[in-house]
Amino acid sequence: MSTDFRRYGEGTSVLVGTPFGFYRSARVMCSDGKVRTTRRISDTADTFFSVPAAVSVRGKTVSGYVTVETRAGSSTETADDPLVLKFVAYQYGRNADKLPKGAWKKGTGK
What we know:
mainly beta; seven-stranded antiparallel beta sheet
């Protein structure tokens, strides 16, 4: 099996195993504005818009999902608003308080 490395805006990326599209690892933008490497990521998406994953924040594992949006939070990429791979923490998770609620958006102060 070979791999495909896909780059997104703000230094985010994903490594995908081909030909079946299994996710291997990712660098994701967290809601606090920091790019982190996933500790784990599901092989495949659970919905069309999200892939279960987890990141480490100050030594604690935070569970959530990875999604793709533009910097401003739209689903449609433009020349001045590229797509970004974003991590959103499950609010019912044990360490959800380690990250601000929701997804990161450029210029929101998060």
